[in-house]
Design brief:
Elements: H1 2-25, H2 32-35, H3 57-62, E1 67-69, E2 71-87, E3 92-95, E4 101-106, E5 114-115, E6 120-125, H4 127-145, H5 151-170, H6 175-184, E7 190-194, E8 199-204, E9 211-212, E10 219-222, E11 226-234, E12 246-251, E13 254-271, E14 276-284, E15 295-312, E16 317-318, E17 323-328, E18 334-345, E19 348-353, E20 360-362, H7 366-383
Antiparallel strand pairs: 1-20, 2-11, 2-15, 3-10, 4-6, 4-9, 5-8, 6-7, 8-10, 11-14, 12-13, 12-15, 13-14, 15-19, 16-17, 17-18, 18-19
Helix pairs in contact: 4-5
Length: 414
């Protein structure tokens, strides 16, 4: 019985509090002076877009607000993407011996070492080379022996000598080495192999004393006087990319060093994971400043349109569902306006509709203005609710908690 009485008393107090709150708030209307934001944000009760914002000059300077004018003029279509410096594959060379043997001495003994065409790489001992030298000297002696003989004998001896000479040459023994063997008449244990190309050693798979096999790559050399820059173009942009287009290239590792080139090749396949197509730009590399593996930003220049309405890219606030700019009205208020965008290039973006040439817009601190505007909208929306005016909070009504009210004592029956 006591618990039932407490429940009825608690419910009565709550109903009484709701009734009093309704009486005190039903006729109140939000005051414009108190519902507006302290920085002068104008409100409108039925709008889902950000509200207009009015900033005094000191506030604008403090948060870094600058302005720009929507202008008409030429706009180059541009595709911007990232790329990476790579080796020119046409200038890569694997150096492999054509005979089996043992490395007696190594002249190029470090990865990264520069080599010139014709520079000695190593000396090699090979039984095959020893046999070929012996055949060469035998043919040389035979030629001397038949010098006074018949024409057929002289021709046959000359053919044997030329055959022995070719055999050594086909094994990449230098002409100077062959000539020295012929001149001295001595078989040399080890002969020198030289680099057929110039460049830088990317890989070295040989050490002194090692046995090497015919066809085994012992060096990989790259000529870095020319490099490739390979970029990834998104699927939606590939229609505007073609061989021969001019390309601007900038590199994180080389600030201020701008390079120009042209697209040399558009790859025929699309990466299914990234939805991109690779393009190749060939760039000269004086001083070897561009190093394979460097990141690059490349801008592919397309056709130029003569009369396009544009604004700075930083002036546009993209929410994912809409694009908004803040227009400065005659009263000084910054009013949000939804715009439709087109192509972009060189830090400017095309405006298809929603803005007129000559209108002044916020060019920087757009996010701060948007935050101010949305704060005004939130406060304005709360001010429209009964009892939620944005201003000084109403004085709370005195009310006694039902838990502190002593229960009534039932009358004693006589």
């Amino acid at each position: 019985m006591r618990q039932t009485m407490h429940g009825l008393l608690y419910g009565g107090v709550v109903l009484a509090a709701v009734a009093v709150a309704y009486v005190f708030t039903r006729d109140r209307t939000p005051s414009p002076a108190t519902a507006a934001h302290q920085h002068g944000a104008a409100v409108s009760a039925d709008s889902d877009v950000p509200r207009s914002v009015t900033l005094v000059p000191d506030e604008a300077r403090r948060i870094g607000v600058t302005y720009a004018v929507a202008t008409r003029g030429p706009l180059e279509k541009e595709v911007r993407t990232v790329g990476q410096v790579a080796y020119d594959e046409t200038r890569l060379r694997a150096i492999s011996p054509k005979i089996d043997g043992w490395v007696e001495r190594l002249f190029v003994d470090a990865t990264g070492q520069p080599v010139a065409a014709g520079q000695p790489l190593l000396t090699i001992y090979s039984p095959m080379l020893v046999s070929a030298q012996e055949e060469l000297l035998l043919a040389k002696r035979l030629q001397s022996a038949v010098a006074a003989g018949s024409a057929d004998a002289r021709s046959g001896a000359a053919d044997l000598l030329a055959s022995a000479h070719r055999r050594l040459a086909y094994w990449d023994v230098p002409e100077s080495e062959i000539a020295d063997v012929e001149r001295s008449g001595r078989v040399r244990k080890a002969l020198t192999l030289r680099s057929p190309v110039g460049g830088y050693v990317l890989e070295k798979n040989v050490v002194a004393g090692q046995k090497i096999m015919a066809g085994e790559p012992i060096y990989r050399v790259a000529d870095l006087s020319t490099v490739w820059v390979e970029g990834a173009v998104f699927e939606q942009d590939i229609a505007g990319v073609r061989v021969g287009q001019a390309v601007h290239a900038d590199f994180q590792a080389l600030p201020g060093e701008h390079r120009m080139g042209r697209i040399a090749y558009v790859y025929p396949t699309l990466d299914a994971d990234t939805r991109t197509v690779k393009v190749r730009v060939v760039l000269p590399n004086p001083g070897l400043r561009l190093k394979p593996g460097m990141y690059a930003t490349i801008r592919i220049v397309g056709a130029t349109r003569a009369d396009v309405l544009t604004v700075p890219s930083d002036a546009v606030l993209s929410t994912g569902e809409r694009s908004i700019v803040f227009v400065r009205e005659a009263s000084g208020a910054l009013a949000p306006r939804e715009v439709a965008l087109g192509e972009s290039a060189d830090h400017r973006v095309e405006v298809l509709r929603g803005l007129a040439a000559g209108e002044t817009i916020v060019a920087s601190a757009t996010f701060l203005i948007d935050a101010e505007s949305n704060l005004a909208k939130s406060l304005g929306g709360m001010g429209d609710m009964p009892g939620m005016e944005v201003g000084a909070p109403p004085t709370p009504l005195p009310m006694t908690s039902p838990r502190t009210t002593p229960p009534a004592t039932p009358a004693r029956k006589e």
